[in-house]
Structure formats: structure tokens, C-alpha cells
Design goal:
Layout lengths: L15 E2 L7 H12 L35 E2 L5 E3 L2 E2 L4 H10 L15 H14 L10 H7 L3 E2 L22 E6 L8 H16 L5 E4 L7 E6 L16 E5 L6 E5 L4 E2 L6 E2 H13 L26 H11 L8 H8 L22 E4 L5 E5 L2 E6 L2 E2 L3 E2 H4 L9 E5 L4 E6 L2 E6 L2 E2 L5 E2 L9 E5 L4 E6 L2 E5 L12 E2 L13 E4 L5 E5 L2 E5 L11 E2 H5 L26
Parallel strand pairs: 1-7, 6-7, 6-8, 8-10, 11-12
Antiparallel strand pairs: 2-4, 3-5, 3-9, 9-10, 13-14, 14-15, 15-16, 15-17, 18-19, 19-20, 20-21, 20-22, 23-24, 24-25, 25-26, 27-28, 28-29, 29-30
Length: 559
């Protein structure tokens, strides 16, 4: 006999207050656009510790690993994938293992993987999937790899196999808004499924959820088709990508309207379980290694007597604590107030056209930020934006920064000064920050995000560190020499940035260097920061060739 969700329409759980309302797909999109215009945030801890580098695939001697039968699912970050797409060969295996964090794409050394690398990655995948651990691509492993799954990475290895925490909300009472509902279910059934998904989490934590029908909501749920003007991640029709969600404190949860959403049946895609999984991400949970856990990477289908796995409970309680009466916003105010507010030191307003900067960052929404002293300004095609005090934009952040870096992978901004690091999403500090730097030297020179391997590079003197934000990092092999990877770059850069076209730029004193995809300085560099990057006029540039892809409009600007 199926265990049905409680009848929300007649009696709401005690953790909820509800105001039923839905809107059309177009209205939902417009509402999401308006809501997304407000600044939001994320939390988490900065503790780099864990996995080393790997090298691309080779078959094991004797043909013991047959890659010809491997079929991979269609994978997208922070999405749930339904039907597997068939691709074969070792490229598919590399894509799968790299996509989900079992292999690390190297920038140093030869561009290949050894048989030992492959076996270690397979063993980690098998252990995380609760399969017999052999290091071989056996039938059970192939079957597991082609099952529908969530597209979020699995930063598991043989040293750490537990739930992953991606951040948390700084309050325990969250408002949510259901912007529209799927057409494949009666409205009351769909609402019931979504509200039950929230209740799974409120039953085991102090979290409470209140539904609102207009205005701002912390968590917004909506359904849209293949494309939406209000969502950067396109869906692909029935059977593949089912849903995706943002981590705290962003709050968007989107479902593919073209799916056959169902409830209390094995047909189609169970809305309640998928919604609960995506809400787990929205609340800050990554993936669990346990196959029966809600937060397992692979979607297990409809389960009539579903309940949270102990690992789901342990993960969410690690973020928000156990459920107990009498915990409310007063405690949250005390908790958030513990983040120290760092006073800014007086300093004169800098001249952006001097060419010298403390840090540079390609930030959220493609904005380029330049930092000097206690001030920050944006750089655009038309020139320089107004100067603001750093603390006026990022409350609690000091001036005279050492380095700044934005990661599109996590939407985290990290600022470095001395032996401390600050984390923000947009303009709000994550709880628990600043933290003491661990594993790297203090007083960094520069930092950048490298999209080709989704890592953050930290620079000091003539060396660099490579850091994976979502994995445990072993930094004992660092620092490594900058010139061994970035050919032609000066030591002690004052700033670094990875541009939209894949090129990397380093800044020092009043000049900057542009690197191509081979990480070599291109012809015509160094160039003048004030003239070529900041677009300052009048200015007499140094003897710098013009034209082609080295034009000022291709550098340091927003398009």
C-alpha cells in the first residue's frame, strides 16, 4: 500500500503557513527575473585539503577494460539527468569521470592518464556507488554509469566518502513561492507533492517554510520548457534533464515542464522526490555516497514508502542542527552578528589611470572590478565606472586587498588579505567568514579562476597553488613555479584574471601580459594598463602593436 503525502490542502504541517497561488509560465518567468535582480549569498568553509592530479585515459594492458560498451548520461552542472545518451569509447569514460570529479584534468605534466589513475578513479566511483570495488569497468559499473543521475559533481575519493556541504542559509525561517505548476498533474496533487518535499527537511531540522504568493521569496520553484529568458540553463525536452537548483542563498529551483511529472505511480518522473532532491541542493547539501539516500547522485525512481536516509539527515543537521522547539529568528540574529566587521583603514582616493591595481576580478554578471587601496571601480567598453569604497559594496570587507577571485562554478567570491580569506556571493558575506588561510602562504599576490579545469589558482612570489573548491585538496605538493605553467609571466604579479574568451591576463606595476590557450604570453605584450585596459585618455602608450585580437576593446571590458 502506497504511503501518500499528507493532504496539504486540508491540513498544513506545523512547519508551514500557506497562501495558495500559482501563475502562468510567462508570469513565472517575469517574476523570477524580478526576484533574481536582488543580491543574494552563499555559505561554507574555506578548508583546502584532498585530491591530486590525474592524467586522460589509456586502456589497461591486456585489454582488461573494455570501454566500447560504456554509455554515458547527459550531464549538466546542478541538474538531474533522465535518459542516458549513447556515446562510446575512451573519450566518453574520460568525460564521465572528469565531469563528476573522479579524475582531475591536469594543467601540469603530460596530457594523459595512466592505468593506475583510471583504476583509482574507478575504485572511488565503485565505492561511492556501493558496488564491488575492483578498479575494473565491469558490467555493474557500466550499468551504474548509464543510469539517470544528478549532474552535480561527486567529489568522492577513497579517503573521504560522505555527504558534501555546499553552504547554508543564515536564517531558519525561509519563504518560498510556487510560481507555476506542471500540466501533467492536477494542481492540488502537484502542490501537495511540492509541499511534502519541503516537509521532509523541516521534519528533521529547525527549518520552517512559509509559502507566499507575491513578492520576494527565498526559494522560488517554477516550471518552464526548453528555453527561458529567465533561466541560463536550457532544458532539452522529455526524458533527459529533469530539473536544476542553485545553492544557498540563491534559491532558484527549476523543473522541465516537458517531463511527465507524476505522483504515487511508477510511471513518469516522481515530482515529490525530485523536488526534495533539488531542495536539498537549495538548502546546501551536495551528494551522498549512499545509493538509497535522497541526495545520491543517481535518481532511483519512485519509492512508495520513501523517507530520508540517515546520511541525508546527518548532512542537513550538520548545516542547521536537530529539530527542537523554540528556535527562532532571535538565535539567527545572534549567529549572523558573530561575523566580525572589519573597519577600513583611511587612505587617499586612488587614480585609476595610474595603472596600478591591488587586485582584479571578472565578477558576477561579467562585470570587471579593479581594486586599489580602499576603493573599487568597474571597467567597461566606454571606460571607468565611479569609485566606491570597498566596504560600501561588500560589507565587512577591508581595503588594501591582496587578491580577489570569482568562481562561476560555485558563484563564490573570495577575497584575500594577509592570513585571512573572506567569502561572498554577490555583496553578502557567507556566515563564519573571514577565516584563517590554511595550506597556502599568507599575503598572496593574485588569484584567478581557470574554467578549463574549474580550479582556482593562487599566486605568491614565483609560485602558485591550485585549489578545487568542491573537493578536499592536498596542497603539500605546492607551491609550483609560475613559469613552469604560465610561460613569460613575471614573478609577483599584482593581479590576474581569466577572461571570457579563455585567455589569461597577469598585471604587475603599470603593465599587463596576455596569454593564449597554450598559456604563453602573446606577441605584443606587455601592454599599458591605463591606456589599453582602463581606456584612459589622453595618454601616450608604449610601443605596442595594435589591431587584431589585441585591441583595447577586447581587453578588460564588459561587452
Amino acid at each position: 500500500m502506497s504511503c501518500c503525502p499528507c493532504r496539504i490542502s486540508s491540513r498544513l504541517p506545523t512547519a508551514f503557513s500557506s497562501m495558495p497561488a500559482t501563475v502562468s509560465r510567462a508570469e513565472a518567468g517575469q517574476a523570477e527575473l524580478e526576484l533574481n535582480s536582488e543580491p543574494q549569498t552563499v555559505s561554507g568553509s574555506w578548508t583546502p585539503q584532498g585530491r591530486g592530479h590525474r592524467r586522460p585515459l589509456e586502456l589497461l594492458p591486456g585489454g582488461t577494460m573494455s570501454w566500447q560498451l560504456l554509455w554515458l548520461g547527459f550531464l549538466l552542472p546542478m541538474t538531474v539527468s533522465g535518459r542516458a545518451l549513447g556515446t562510446t569509447g575512451k573519450e566518453a569514460a574520460v568525460d564521465y569521470l572528469l565531469k563528476y570529479g573522479y579524475l582531475q584534468k591536469p594543467l601540469e605534466g603530460p596530457d594523459d592518464f595512466s592505468p593506475e589513475d583510471i583504476m583509482e578513479a574507478l575504485r572511488a566511483f565503485q565505492e561511492a556507488s556501493e558496488l564491488p570495488v575492483s578498479g575494473q569497468l565491469d558490467d555493474a559499473t557500466r550499468v551504474r554509469m548509464r543510469q539517470p543521475r544528478c549532474g552535480l559533481e561527486d567529489p568522492f575519493n577513497q579517503r573521504t566518502l560522505k555527504y558534501l556541504l555546499l553552504g547554508r542559509w543564515r536564517k531558519k525561517h525561509l519563504k518560498f513561492r510556487i510560481l507555476n505548476l506542471p500540466s501533467t498533474l492536477p494542481a492540488h496533487t502537484a502542490r501537495e507533492a511540492l509541499l511534502q518535499a519541503f516537509q521532509y527537511w523541516s521534519d528533521v531540522t529547525p527549518l520552517t517554510f512559509q509559502e507566499v504568493h507575491a513578492g520576494w521569496a527565498d526559494i522560488r520553484l517554477s516550471f518552464h520548457g526548453r528555453q527561458s529568458l529567465y533561466c541560463s540553463k536550457d532544458f532539452d525536452g522529455p526524458g533527459r534533464v529533469l530539473a536544476h537548483a542553485d545553492i544557498p542563498e540563491l534559491g532558484s529551483v527549476h523543473f522541465d515542464e516537458d517531463e511527465l511529472w507524476t505522483e504515487r505511480t511508477y510511471r513518469g518522473v516522481n515530482l515529490r522526490i525530485i523536488a526534495a532532491h533539488e531542495l536539498g541542493h537549495a538548502l546546501g547539501l551536495g551528494h551522498s555516497r549512499y545509493t538509497q539516500a535522497l541526495m545520491a547522485p543517481v535518481y532511483a525512481g519512485y519509492r512508495p514508502h520513501f523517507k530520508l536516509h540517515p546520511d541525508d539527515v546527518a548532512g542537513i543537521q550538520a548545516l542547521y542542527g536537530k529539530k527542537s522547539p523554540g528556535i527562532g529568528d532571535e538565535e539567527e540574529e545572534m549567529e549572523t552578528s558573530t561575523v566580525p566587521q572589519v573597519p577600513t583603514e583611511p587612505s587617499p582616493m586612488p587614480d585609476p589611470c595610474s595603472g596600478e591595481v591591488d587586485a582584479m576580478m571578472l565578477g558576477p554578471r561579467g562585470k570587471t572590478y579593479a581594486f586599489k587601496g580602499n576603493y573599487v571601480w568597474t571597467v567597461t567598453d566606454s571606460g571607468l565606472g565611479p569609485l566606491f569604497q570597498v566596504s560600501a559594496l561588500w560589507e565587512g570587507l577591508p581595503g588594501n586587498l591582496d587578491a580577489a577571485v570569482y568562481s562561476p562554478r560555485t558563484q563564490w567570491i573570495h577575497f584575500f588579505k594577509g592570513n585571512k580569506v573572506w567569502r561572498y556571493i554577490n555583496f553578502r558575506m557567507s556566515p563564519g567568514f573571514p577565516k584563517i588561510l590554511s595550506g597556502v602562504e599568507p599575503n598572496l599576490d593574485a588569484a584567478l579562476y581557470w574554467p578549463r579545469n574549474k580550479k582556482v589558482f593562487l599566486f605568491k612570489g614565483s609560485g602558485y597553488w591550485q585549489w578545487d573548491e568542491l573537493a578536499r585538496n592536498d596542497l603539500s605538493r605546492y607551491p609550483k613555479p609560475i613559469k613552469g605553467l604560465f610561460t613569460g609571466v613575471p614573478d609577483q604579479p599584482s593581479a590576474a584574471i581569466s577572461w571570457r574568451d579563455g585567455r589569461v591576463y597577469f598585471f604587475k606595476d603599470k603593465q599587463y601580459w596576455g596569454l593564449n590557450w597554450q598559456l604563453r604570453v602573446e606577441k605584443g605584450y606587455p601592454r599599458d594598463i591605463a591606456y589599453n585596459w582602463m581606456h584612459c585618455r589622453p595618454h601616450t602608450p608604449d610601443t605596442t602593436p595594435s589591431g587584431g585580437d589585441t585591441s583595447p576593446s577586447a581587453r578588460g571590458t564588459d561587452h
